[in-house]
Design goal:
Structural class: mainly alpha
Order of helices and strands: HHHHHHHHHHHH
Shape: extended
Radius of gyration: 35 Å
Distance between the termini: 110 Å
Oligomer: single chain
Length: 390
């Protein structure tokens, strides 16, 4: 005989499913509204994020100066100036050698174009000079016809560059104020919040700050590994400008996808111009291998250890962030996932029942001498001494 469903249990399961679905729907709507507000305020939020990331880099020397007795404003000013000097020195380290080699690089580019043209004229392409000239003329005509769209793109590019400069300036000012007033932020925040929030929010903020610091340190370590491996490969292949290219690789590691592509393209072009086609191919293979190791081995392993996330979670977060928000999404995917994990772990700690107290273990009693049994004869007693004679 087949069993029938219990009507009461079925209705209870449906009501529970409907209630949970409604609650999840409300959570998703609230999350969507929060993301929409975040997008509307992105011109302020993005410099704030960049300033926080820069602060995690510059906070250790600031803390060291504060422990030596310097005032917060003086320590923050010194570290900010030092940061600007390091940034300017990095740019000079890349730009000055490239400028000194610009003449040879320009001659190499012209020679490379000529070699490419001669290769195209030979087998298997067999493209004669007239066809190449016609292709150049057609490209020139297309560029002239597209002058309007090119101008629009140029204006958009200039606007993007200007927005980036404004973001960098705001981030530097925010970094200075974070370094100067950062230690007073959590006590101030605790005084502004009521009740339980005065305890929970500062604790979560402190944990999130530690997580951001771990992310920046792990990203710097990944960039250092990339710079060392690619620099050694370029040195073995005798490619010029090894040190500037290694520094460029390290700096570009903080900008996902675009940074690696830009640094790799520069290295391949310099190898093509200076060493020839085969060395350029070898440099390209080297960069692809190192980038694959970074994305699939080094970065997930290092960041999973520093952030407490599994390597698979990091890979999925970067993929999801890139598909949702492009380059910015790829940059923020890992720290956002780590911050979500921090908040979730804190909520789980607060919602988990404390373990039941264990009964105290009985204290061991002192060992008692065994009682003589009836089967065992008692010890013989010594005879009493005779009484003295009267």
């Amino acid at each position: 005989m087949s069993a029938t469903l219990n009507a009461g249990k079925t209705r209870a399961a449906l009501r529970t499913s409907a209630r949970i679905s409604g609650e999840l729907l409300l959570v998703l709507v609230a999350t969507g509204v929060a993301l929409w507000l975040l997008g509307r305020m992105w011109s302020v939020v993005w410099p704030l994020i960049v300033g926080l990331l820069l602060t995690t880099l510059t906070w250790p020397p600031t803390r060291w100066l504060l422990r030596r007795g310097l005032r917060p404003a003086v320590a923050a000013s010194l570290v900010t100036v030092l940061f600007l000097l390091v940034g300017a020195g990095t740019v000079a380290l890349i730009a000055v050698p490239v400028a000194s080699e610009s003449g040879e690089l320009g001659d190499g580019v012209v020679e490379g174009v000529q070699k490419l043209r001669e290769w195209a004229e030979g087998p298997p392409l067999n493209i004669d000079d007239a066809q190449i000239t016609g292709a150049f003329d057609a490209a020139t005509d297309r560029i002239q016809d597209s002058a309007g769209s090119i101008a629009t793109t140029a204006v958009t590019g200039v606007s993007t560059v200007f927005s980036g400069v404004v973001t960098a300036v705001l981030a530097l000012f925010l970094m200075f104020f974070f370094l100067k007033d950062g230690p007073r932020f959590l006590p101030w925040l605790r005084r502004q919040l009521p009740g339980r929030l005065a305890t929970d929010v500062p604790v979560v903020a402190a944990r999130c700050w530690d997580t951001l610091g771990a992310f920046v340190r792990s990203q710097a370590l990944v960039g250092l590994i990339d710079a060392v491996l690619i620099g050694l490969g370029l040195w073995v292949l005798d490619v010029p400008l090894v040190l500037p290219l290694a520094v460029l690789t390290f700096v570009s590691a903080f900008v996902p996808i675009v940074g690696a592509l830009f640094a790799g393209l520069v290295a391949v072009l310099i190898a093509l111009v200076s060493n020839g086609f085969m060395d350029a191919v070898l440099v390209l293979v080297l960069i692809v291998v190192v980038q694959q190791l970074e994305g699939n081995v080094f970065q997930p392993m290092i960041q999973s250890r520093g952030l407490g996330l599994h390597a698979a979670v990091i890979l999925l977060a970067v993929t999801l962030g890139g598909s949702l928000a492009g380059i910015v999404g790829s940059l923020l995917a890992v720290p956002v996932a780590a911050l979500v994990a921090v908040v979730w772990n804190y909520l789980r700690e607060q919602l988990t029942d404390p373990p039941a107290p264990q009964p105290p273990a009985p204290e061991p009693s002192a060992p008692q001498p065994p009682e003589p049994s009836a089967a065992q004869p008692s010890a013989p007693q010594s005879p009493a001494p005779d009484a003295p004679a009267a």
